[in-house]
Amino acid sequence: MSATTNVASQTQAPSTWSGASVLHWLRTQLFSSPLNTLLTILSVWLLFAFVPGLVDWFLLNATVSATSAQECRKVTGACWSVIVEKHRLILFGVYPYEEQWRPLLAMLLMLGVIILSGVRRFWNFSLLLFWAIALVGAAVLMWGGVFGLTYVENSRWGGLPLTLMLSTFGIAFAFPLGIVLALGRRSNMPAIKTICIVYIELIRGVPLISLLFMSAVMLPLFLPEGLTIDKLLRAQVAIILFAAAYMAETIRGGLQAIPKGQFEGADSLGLTYWQQMRLIVLPQALKIVIPPLVGLFIALFKDTSLVVIIGIYDLTQAAKAALVDQAWRGFSIEIYVFISAIYFVFCYSMSKYSQSLEKRLATEHQR
């Protein structure tokens, strides 16, 4: 009887809000108190004060057809022609102009395998094969020297492909290292536990800029004479070590949230320690910490822009190089808005995927 009543009430529910319900929502959500009323009025005023001007600058008074900087300076809005003129330098840095199809193709390979990694149907050993093919293909395309491709040293890599590589390798290697550090910090062996604690607290106690400076300036001083390590590789290692320390603490929080009964149940089945972690504990712990882990991934993707301080041509440094041209001076806002949009697309995509993954994993355990 109750089920029939519920169905009938749902059938009779109006598809649109009535005037009374709209007024009720406004009164409860926007004008429920003097403070909320003041904040609502202030927000509306800010929207009316700034949004029309931004729309005029971004769209209505903007241009993409200017053929020179002189024409752009006559426009009252944004001059997106500077993006049209400098987009290859911004996206690919100082990579040889006639060879820029190679970093574009390498970037598409990386994006393709990243997208495949998000599809659960490919969560098996075939994914490792796809990653191996993509990494080898990207390396061949970027370096060249084989199959008739001109050799390009990595000091000339730059732009979006380099940013994508630094963040992808940083996440891919920092994640398993973070798991090992989290397990080591919870270990019953004093030596391993102490080493993990010292490493995590030491790395988390210094900013990433310090690690990048140390990798670029101080590390070569401790190497044997005649032995050199590429600057790009040193920056990548610093990013991995930095991200792993933060991931370790996040994963440790997930491990602590697992009920003790899960460990006892695994012991009763006669599973070894690594079987317990791989089959029972870690899958639950990682599911719990999906939101903070994705937050770390997003932060790491944005933090790759800090390599600009050691002279690596990532997306930010390539954008700054585009501003060196005297003819296009004064249009930095358009260029920085462009690279901000690129960062936003990648970060927002990661955020939306994490939300869908949370929902998918949560519904699997509902009855």
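(ticket continues) Second input and output from the same batch:
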Amino acid sequence: MTVVFAGGGTGGHLYPAIAIADALRERQATIAFVGSAERLEASLVPKAGYPLHTIASRSLPRRFSFDLARTIGSNLRGTLQSLRLLAKLRPDVVIATGGYVSFPVVLAARIARLARRADVKVALFEPNASPGLTNRMVAPLADEVWGAFSDENGRFRGRYVQTGTPIRSALRSLPSRADAIGRLGLDPEFKTLVAMGGSQGARAINEALAKLLEDRGLPSGWQLLLVTGPDDYDRITRRIANAPIDPQRVALRAYLDDMSDAYAAADLLLTRAGASTLGELAALGKPAILVPYPHAAQEHQAANAAHLKAAGAAEVLSDSQLEVRLRELLAQTCAPERLRALTENAQRLRNEDPLATILARVDMLASRRGKR
């Protein structure tokens, strides 16, 4: 079986794709990715061991602008490039995982099928509670839509399968807490707050935690692992150097290629509400304080966070409230009874393995090739 993945731009679009690809590779499938040469997939996909074919694409416009002609031209060029790629790769299934680069690939797959030049099935994975513009446009061209949340509004019209979000193979079997704590240089006697803002970090979270440390706001008996992102690491390191706190209770990292130690060590996480992060929290049963990115398209991070809050597995704090309310909310959340309740609710989210469901859907789609 040959499977082509289309998508990129963010970890939320890429990490689920790589998780599915890893599982398919174990079954001897041939895998290829299509993405952009300028975005995150250019480094992440080759690092994961997969070939990346790059095409032209531009973000789809939400309103009329003078850039419209360039957008149309770029995506038309990307569609022609995708037609040539699909003719060369001859995939059984195309899996689109979001990002504007997926649009030309899915359009090309549908054109090839209508022209009877190829018989390729198309699946769309929607990791967010509120679909983005590209996925809303791509959905009518897909044979199936898979997603992390229920399709409450019926927008996918009977083609929707709730699968959950697959997580990377490195996270599916975490190391022991003791081993993780040792590698991270933390103290096994303290509970651990892990704070991160995604692959590039989150300045608002970094600033709020720096102020918290300066104001002696870290709860008693707790330590902090802060993943700052590469751009903020030096600045935050300098800022907290003189904070009135035992330096042994704070560990800073610019970036972690493998998050398994961080998740194994974490008793609580403070993080953005991106799709891949929430999929990992649900799969691993970890409680969190979520700070949705305020500029996410269609406010999808806020919608994602609302689902975990409704399940009793997370607290939610807005970006604007971070510096004002973080100390109070952190103290409340770290109280033993409240933390225990959040953890128990988070553990209840650990249901069937999303990968098993998705692999079954891939097999089903591939078996339907040749059937109209």
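Agent notes: The CA atoms of residues 19 and 168 lie 5 Å apart. The mean pLDDT is 89. Closing as not reproducible unless the customer responds.
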